[in-house]
Amino acid sequence: xxxxxxxxxxxxxxxxxxxxxxxxxxxxxxxxxxxxxxxxxxxxxxxxxxxxxxxxxxxxxxxxxxxxxxxxxxxxxxxxxxxxxxxxxxxx
Length: 92
Description:
The protein has about 90 residues and is of the alpha/beta class. The protein has one domain. It has three helices and three strands; from the N terminus they run βααβαβ. It has helices spanning about 20-25, 25-40, 55-70, and strands at about 5-10, 45, 70-75. It has a three-stranded parallel sheet with strand order 1-2-3, covered by helices on one side. α3 (about 55-70) links the parallel β2 (about 45) and β3 (about 70-75). The termini are close together. About 15% of the residues are buried. The model is unreliable at about 85-90 (pLDDT under 50).
């Protein structure tokens, strides 16, 4: 992997599990993908798989947006709790 830069995506806790349209609930995902694409970043890191969606449809939409932006998705291995900070994560 030549491009070692990455963007991180974290779902705002207050939006998790709410019944709202995808574009409102996951506005950060859209912005994350747009930012990465605009800045030539090839990687997106998420802390937990559930940040990509609460339902199958939301998960597929998030994965589709990541694919459309031609990003490589990295999911950090499970450790600690939901409060574990996403730092010291290095791309190999």
